[in-house]
Amino acid sequence: MIVIIGGGPAGIMAAISAASDQNEVTLVEKNEHFGRKLLLTGGGRCNLTNICGPEDLIHHFSKTGSFLRDAFKAFDNNDLISFFAGRGLKTKVEENGRVFPVTDKASSVLGLLEEELKKLKIKVLVNTSVKEIIVSQSAVKGVLCEDGTIVEADKVIVAAGGLSYKATGSTGDGIRLAGKLGHKIVPLKPGLAALTLESTLPERLEGVSLNDVKLIFKAGKKKVASEKGSIIFTKNGISGPVTLSSSSKVADWLNEGKKVSIEIDIMPVLDPKATEEMLIKKISESSIKGLKNILKEFAPMRFTDILLELSKIPQDKKANQLTSKERKDLIMLLKGLKLDVINTVSFEKAQITRGGVSVKEIDPKTMGSKKVKGLYFAGETMDIDGDCGGFNLQAAFSTGYLAGLSAGSKNADL
Ligand SMILES: Cc1cc2nc3c(=O)[nH]c(=O)nc-3n(C[C@H](O)[C@H](O)[C@H](O)COP(=O)(O)OP(=O)(O)OC[C@H]3O[C@@H](n4cnc5c(N)ncnc54)[C@H](O)[C@@H]3O)c2cc1C
To answer: Looking at residue 225, what is its pLDDT?
Structure first.
């Protein structure tokens, strides 16, 4: 008998692969419904994986990425796409290899997974929270639920997620349960998180997006990284794919006590001189226009209004009245508006958890615990974290698949 704790993507996939070999499987979920976090993914569209090559997949994870090699060998991005296609859900590829269902609905992904659970006659217990994993003589015997129910099992797969977006059910239980059994826990930190900035500008720019910009990160005076992509201003900082992907590095620098700043270059394809020449050309082509109308071609109006304010240029200035000093000030801001970072947002709003059950005590070939016989792990409960772009769901599905396969194998733990 196999019990799986957690009905997110990792737990559901673990149940499906474990049940494929005629095993008796019970999936325990503390919410009334499965996959609450899955429904939020990709802005409700579910960026379920990425079409990059096998080695590239691993490079999109932090330093524990190589632990995933066997899981990806067992079930990679192509297998995942075929899994859905074979059951009637086609996918499409968008910018940067990101894969979405053609329906643009995360509910189609969850619906298909739930259908599969039914087809395989997997027993489900919802509204049931696992409180303890029962272990005797270093081997699992079952789970004890909050309501006192005991579900006996000789294999338990912990797929209870991380600690972000607690309202979805991911409250760190899996990590706590593993810790109680003696597993080492790598300290938890929010990952793929928006940044809060030490400025009132974000509040005034809330909702404004800047596409194809370059973010230059500085720790102290040293340039430490740069990323290209889109950003969106939030009430107290910035978010968007580039910000989220850079947030782990930013958090690490801040934790080292460094002062981190970002510079936003909104014209990364042109150097400052070429940007200035372009502005001069635009002004000469339409010299009677207000400067604001010309700047509109460079960036959204709410953003350029602020650039004018910061460079102390009157909002109603005519383009042909712009002095050379004012022009240079403007170019400096277009090429490098500098803002200081306070921190990343908290777990509540971070997309993933960094840290978790140390992978050093998990066999990468099976996802089995090296400490407790019959115990397996899948998904974000483990210390694995990937970039934005479908990598975290792929890791949840791949590790879930491998954990289920291993726990369900007739040779498991022999
Ligand atoms: C807003 C948002 C958007 C995201 N977008 C993307 C995206 O587009 N692409 C991508 O790759 N990743 C995305 N992610 C990350 C991705 O959702 C997670 O990495 C993924 O859901 C992890 O899967 P999991 O199954 O390990 O854990 P979870 O999805 O967290 O599932 C864990 C499940 O376990 C249950 N559980 C917890 N404790 C117990 C217990 N004691 N007993 C029983 N059940 C329990 C929970 O209720 C939950 O249902 C996003 C995350 C967020 C928050």
So the answer is: 86
